[in-house]
Amino acid sequence: MFHVSDTVIYDSVFDKGESPLKECRNIELYTTLFRWKYPLWYCHNIKLKDCTLFDMARAGIWYTDDIHIEDTVIEAPKNLRRSRGIVLQNVSFPNAAETLWNCDDVKMTQVYARGDYFAFNTNNITADHLTLVGNYSFDGSRNVTIRDSKLLSKDAFWNTENVTVTDSFISGEYLGWNARNLTLINCTIESLQGMCYIDNLVMKNCKLINTTLAFEYSTVEAEICSSVDSVLNPSQGMIKAQSIGSLIIQKDLIDPGKTRIVCDDIHETTDEIVW
Question: Which whole number is the average pLDDT over 37-43?
Fold first, then answer.
């Protein structure tokens, strides 16, 4: 079916055989199964509903623009590369390793993804009710908005720019390193050495649970409505918290006068790091 256009496909199975729908245009697929590699490459204006991409349909959707995927399971890894105009609605990625790379203009609603390196270098993302289990997510992405989501992800949002996360739960070590313009609103966060090396970190009404050695070398405006286990060497800005277990300031590394700490309950102030 190479180069097919203006076609509706339903109740079908694409079994062994590579690239069955390469360079297709204006295709709708309903209740269709893909069992082999590279099913949708170099396509345009594609709709999938109630479909399944099995494990061997890996690298399944690359170089494809304007694709709407709904009520679908994509079991195969390394899907959605160098594509743009992507809508994902009620889609499950049980093996999302290296999925959604180098894409642009992505809208996700009720998406479940499990796998490392999700959304690498992908820009202009909006996600509502995303559940992500996998490390190193969103590395290098720009212009990302995430709402009402749960992210279990070590090293999430590294090297990102213009990311806003609201009303969400995030658990993972080393959150947000080397990011620029990271905003977290009404979030609950658990992180070891989270929110470090960030240029312009904004936190509003956030809870930090089991979070240690936070904010190292970050410029930060943080309103924390909980305690913080430990804060380490913030570069500049303001940190407001209900209590701080250990405030670690090493004057030979940072200028403490550049950061205002608003907290009536600081258990200890020290220049020694306890790992």
Answer: 97
CA-CA-CA-CA dihedral for 209, 205, 221, 105, to nearest 10: 100
pTM for this predicted structure: 0.95
3-state secondary structure the chain: CCCCEEEEEECCEECCCCCCCCCCEEEEEECCEECCCCCEECCEEEEEECCEECCCCCCCEECCEEEEEEEEEECCCCCCECCEEEEEEEEEECCCCCCCECCEEEEEEEEEEECCCCCCCCEEEEEEEEEEECCCCCCCCEEEEEECCEEECCCCCCCCEEEEEECCEEECCCCCCCCEEEEEECCEEECECCCCCCEEEEEEEEEECCCECECCCCEEEEEECCEEEEEECCCEEEEECCEEEEEECCCCCCCHHHEEEECCCEEEEECCCCC
Q: What residues does each domain of the chain span?
A: 135-275
> Who's near 135: CB < 8 A, 6+ residues apart?
116, 117, 153, 154, 155, 156, 172
Q: What is the pLDDT of residue 272?
A: 86
Q: What percent of the chain has pLDDT over 90?
A: 98
**Can you tell me the distance from the alpha carbon of 155 to that of 191, in angstroms, rounded to the nearest whole number?**
10
CB 231 within 8 A of CB 253: no
> How do 44-49 and 33-34 pair as beta strands?
unpaired
